[in-house]
Amino acid sequence: MGSSKYMLTAAELAGLVGKRSGDIARLFNKRDLHRLSSNRKGIPPRLVREYLISLGFSYNFSVVAHINLRGGIGKTTSTISAASRACQYGFKTCILDMDPQGSSSLAFDVLPGREDPIFYDVWQKPSEMVMGSLKKIGDYLYILPSSLENALLDSSLINPSSQKKAARGVCDELRANGFDLVVIDCPPSLGIAVISSICAADTIVVPVCSDAFSFKGLELTLNEITSICDTFHLEKPVIRVLFTKFDRRVKISHDALGCFRSDYSDYFIPDVIRTSTEFSKALAMKETIFASPKKNLAREDYDRYVRHITGLNRSFPEI
């Protein structure tokens, strides 16, 4: 994939910091800017990072895991959208695909070959294997892809001490090699991949939607997070609930949103992810909604989500 695909536009950076687009563009050498579609100017992640650091923003390392024991509620979409947007904001980002179905890997068309290492292969020797196992998607955006062999974790990672350390060891190696953000895509089941991810996560985001099963899935997921943290004597990570697939035309969406906000107010992320055909269009192109600078509701929603979980909103309150 072309490295210029995932870039912040000058207008987007200007909106973040409260300046005019032209003023932002003039801060950079014209040779460093990339011409995107619709004549927009793209700023490479490295330069966005340098500029935001100059304004006082700190790129603190974090592991964000998308977990829900129910499937079909937007874990993969949230993972790949958040990761691709974060890299545009200058976060050196790695997707850790823990789902044996490899949905995140498939979304970027980077399914591993027969001899390519996956998490199942690298967790025991992270310092030796992790960096050489990553697939580059674009500047500041990488993935450790997954395949069906990751399902074997349940039979090979039986030692509780190893379960606690496996995902964290991989994340620590990424941190040691300059990554700022690890975004984990978990399978919709309580297996070793999810247990180890919970042990590694600084923030756990539980995507939910309007169907009745989402309430049960959220309840089970929250209970399991508490149980696992108690079992391994870990401090509970920050927990957030993200409402996905919100359809303002449907009453059940509004009813469910009201219930989630009321019952889980301590966890609930203020902004929702609205339904959009842009997600399927992007996936058909083996990319995410942030590969194109074209404005749409999907980009707006996940941009707000990323700014929420990375702290960019707190750093730039004038947005």
Concise summary:
Helix content is 45%, strand content 13%. The protein has helices at 10-17, 21-25, 45-54, 75-88, 103-107, 119-122, 126-133, 153-156, 160-176, 192-200, 212-231, 251-263, 278-284, 297-310, 312-315, and strands at 8-9, 34-35, 41-43, 62-66, 93-97, 135-138, 141-144, 181-185, 203-208, 238-243.
Chart the SSEs and their pairings:
Layout: E1 8-9, H1 10-17, H2 21-25, E2 34-35, E3 41-43, H3 45-54, E4 62-66, H4 75-88, E5 93-97, H5 103-107, H6 119-122, H7 126-133, E6 135-138, E7 141-144, H8 153-156, H9 160-176, E8 181-185, H10 192-200, E9 203-208, H11 212-231, E10 238-243, H12 251-263, H13 278-284, H14 297-310, H15 312-315
Parallel strand pairs: 4-8, 4-9, 5-7, 5-8, 9-10
Antiparallel strand pairs: 1-3, 2-3, 6-7
Helix pairs in contact: 4-14, 7-9, 9-10
Mind explaining what this structure looks like?
This protein is of the alpha/beta class and 319 residues long. 45% of the residues lie in helices and 13% in strands. The chain has 15 helices and 10 strands. It has helices at residues 10-17, 21-25, 45-54, 75-88, 103-107, 119-122, 126-133, 153-156, 160-176, 192-200, 212-231, 251-263, 278-284, 297-310, 312-315, and strands at 8-9, 34-35, 41-43, 62-66, 93-97, 135-138, 141-144, 181-185, 203-208, 238-243. It has a 7-stranded mixed beta sheet, with helices on both faces. Strands 1-3-2 form a 3-stranded antiparallel beta sheet. The two termini are 32 Å apart.
